[in-house]
Amino acid sequence: MTEKIINDRPLLRTVWPAVPILLAGIMITLLLLIASDQSPLVAYNALWDGAFGSSDRTYSTLAFWVPLLLCATGLLVTFTAGLWNIGVEGQMIMGAIGATWVALTIALPNPNISSWIILPLEILAGMALGAVWAALAAVLKTRGGVHEIFGGVALNSLAIIATNYLISGPWQPPEGGSFRGTVPFPDNAMLPLLDPTRFSPLSLALALIALGLIVFMLRGTHWGLELKALGKNLRAAFLLGVSSERQAINSMMFCGALAGFAGAVRVLSWFDSLRQSISGGIGFLAILIVLLAGFRPLWTLIIALLFSALLNGGTFVQSRTQLHSALSGIIQGVLVLFVLLFGDYSRLFRRKPTDEHEVAHE
Amino acid sequence: MSDNSLIPILAAILAQSAPLMLAITGETLTERVGVINLSLDGTMLISAMAGFVIALKTKEMLNTPTDTIPVLAGFLAAGLIGALVALLIAWGSIRLKQDQVAIGFILTLLLADMANFFGQNYTRLPGPHVTYLPIPGLSQIPILGPLLFSHDLLIYSTLIIVGAVWWFLYKTQPGLRLRGVGERPESAFVRGVPVNTLRYLYAALGGFLVGLSGAAFSLDIKLGWSDNHIAGFGWIALAIVIFGGWHPLRGAVGALLFGATKTIAQSLQQSYPEVPTVLFNSLQWLLMLGVLLMVGSSEITRRLVQVAPRPLQAPLTRILRVAPPASLGRAFGQES
User: Fold this and answer.
1) According to the model, what pLDDT value does residue B15 have?
2) CB atoms A157 and B232 under 8 Å
3) By Cβ atoms counted within 10 A, which residue in A68, A279, B247, B317 is the most buried?
4) Distance CA B124, CA A128 (A)
């Protein structure tokens, strides 16, 4: 009966499955908070205040949205090609390193060069390095038989090690031995920011354009079709004449370039230098977002905003209530896990087929 | 190097590698039956945290001077958590027909966050740990005594578990059935083997061992708890399962080689402080990529083998040619 009501209304049909899952997510965080002797109301309030409590906090949330969107956009490409680009985190870090390299070697000694020359260079360097890091994972897979998950995990760690090496070695500030980061970049190396926040509207515009472009390319071009064939059905891809190696490397490099862009945005707006934890888990979060969105671009956009609010609010919760910032990670993880497990939860209640014909048919 | 200094180093490598061996053996069992538990890194973190905290609380509650019962309680809790996680993945795959890799990856992140969240009040505390227990008599044997019989119960149990799993997989009828389910679930099913029941069973058993390995870190090898205490080891274990060709003994050897390389690197680092530490830090990840490359591509395998002396080439090829269980990661259902 209810099923009929729901099926007659398309909007209800798309939103309805999300309701019990959202409720379950809220219930689980409630239990977690009660288990750790915290008032859930205080925690949720802090989370909301942290994410949207003032216009500055809201802009901070938007500042998290940009790199999340860029990484998620790239992941739409790799997931379409059937690849698990866990390495997106490291690709982002390499992007940050690339942008930092330009900032330190060109912008710092030449304070008179316009930022309209420096910025494209920084972003391009970030994208290039991100793409190279992604290509490494792709070649390890196609030529070395190393699954992209393992290649990605190793390359992520190597990117973090590279960052630590750079900021405690060659790029260490002259005043000495802090492990914190490089010297602050000069003004002409930074993205134009919305004072007094760390949000760069330009970067958001670019991220939205990138998402639009990628969606168009995936849906409207032959390239998109080839990727889909590769992801869905290797045999079909072969019949289409798709070179699986070339497309795997291509799609990974696309994603790597966008992740590198995200890394550049992190150092050129949120921070003003290369830091130890430049990514803050944003790459991994982007994977969760795309999984939660079921690879749908519009939902990716919305969920990325929701998650950036959780990310930004989470840091605030920690300072106000002493709750570990991992809380927002738990909320996100539980939500994605539930959607993945029960998103198609009609399976839970469907009776096993007893019809012999059905058994034989499969 | 004389015997006097070599033996303690080897014994230390064996002890250091024990937790990884447990995780590798557990995951080998799970993957052999056809289920991928990708969540190892997260599972080991949360079971390390839980094992430590439960042991600590049990000791407070019982108010005993000895660590035996608290440590056992910690291991039991950790093992159960590991089994539960593995069951969740198996259930998501078998019953809900969802992607094992996706569930496993989400759990990796989620469980790490949970470990850090619930462990936040227990960081950097001293706590109970596994006590040293040389075996009387046997530990007096020259060379073998200090190498094998001068450890604690965890190390002995690990060696026994690795051996038992190997014996079970290759020398018993149920073991054969287990491997059959992982290779050809359809044929096994036709012969009356309850495919999915066995998958739940061995996934849980393997998960239990993975849980034990988490506690083996926090209660024995890397004592206590702190944020992301043993992050990374889960991925190393997953890679060694592949390097070991889904064989428990070869997996254990892989763990020993990994432990040995790390130990050698550490002593080199002390002797050559001028070499940048970045090299040593990268080592475990380069090693992981290296071993996966060795077994990952037939081209690379062939070139590697050609370097070896001729009589060794045939056995080396056999060792390096590995193949996963044929149905690994695929759900099996009568209806699908």
Assistant:
1) 92
2) yes
3) A279
4) 41
Q: What is the complex's ipTM, to 2 decimals?
A: 0.92
User: A133, A100, A120: which is closest to A259 by C-alpha?
Assistant: A133
Give the pLDDT score at A177: 55
Range of the domain at B24: 3-230
The answer, for A245 touching chain B at a CB cutoff of 8 Å, is no
**Quick one: average pLDDT of A299-321?**
89
Class of domain A63-312: mainly alpha
Tokens of B293: 């490359």
**What residues form DSSP beta bridges with B152?**
B132
Q: Which of A151, A288, A359 sits opposite B334 (nearest CB)?
A: A359
| B113/A144 CB distance under 8 A | no
Mean pLDDT of B206-234: 94
Please state the domain extents for chain A.
Answer: 63-312
Whether the Cβ atoms of residue B93 and residue B22 lie closer than 8 Å to each other: no
Decide if B324 is inside a domain: no
Chain B, nearest residue to A159 by Cα: B282
Residue B91 maps to a domain? yes
Q: What is the mean pLDDT of residues B39-50?
A: 97
A324 closest CB neighbour out of B120, B286, B295: B120
Q: What's the token pair of residue A100?
A: 């930092």
- β partners of residue A275: A181
**B1 pLDDT higher than 50:** no
Q: Specify the number of domains making up chain B.
A: 1
Under an 8 A CB cutoff, do A344 and B96 touch? yes
Average pLDDT in the A202-223 region? 94
Please tell me which residue, B7 or A176, carries the higher pLDDT value: B7
Q: Dig out the tokens for B218 from the structure.
A: 């926090």
A18 reaches B (C-beta below 8 A): no
The pLDDT value given to residue B270: 85
Examine the pLDDT at B238 and tell me if it is beyond 90.
yes
Range B13-26 average pLDDT: 96
Which residues of chain B have a CB within 8 Å of the CB of A36? 117-118
| CB-closest option in A86, A150, A337 to B110 | A337
Task: Tell me whether residue B191 is in a domain.
Answer: yes
A143 CB within 8 Å of a chain B CB: yes
Residue B266 lies in a domain: no
Q: Higher model confidence: residue B333 or residue B18?
A: B18
Distance in Å, alpha carbon of B306 to nearest chain A alpha carbon: 17
Q: Which of B95, B101, B116 sits opposite A326 (nearest CB)?
A: B116
**Percentage of chain A lying above the pLDDT 70 cut:** 88
Instruction: Please say whether the beta carbons of B98 and A302 come within 8 A.
Output: no
> Is 0.80 surpassed by the pTM of this model?
yes
Tell me the C-alpha distance between A349 and A344, whole Å.
10
Q: Are residues B278 and A146, on separate chains, in Cβ contact within 8 Å?
A: no
Could you give the count of Cα atoms lying within 13 Å of A227 in the half-sphere of its Cβ?
25
A contacts of B297 (beta carbons < 8 Å): 143-145
- Whether chain B has a CB inside 8 Å of the CB on A340: the answer is yes
Mean predicted confidence (pLDDT) in B20-43: 96
Which residues are CB-contacts of B58 (< 8 A; sequence separation ≥ 6)?
B69, B70, B73, B74, B128
pLDDT of A356 strictly over 60: no
Q: Which of A275, A254, A35, A225 is nearest to B114 (CA)?
A: A35
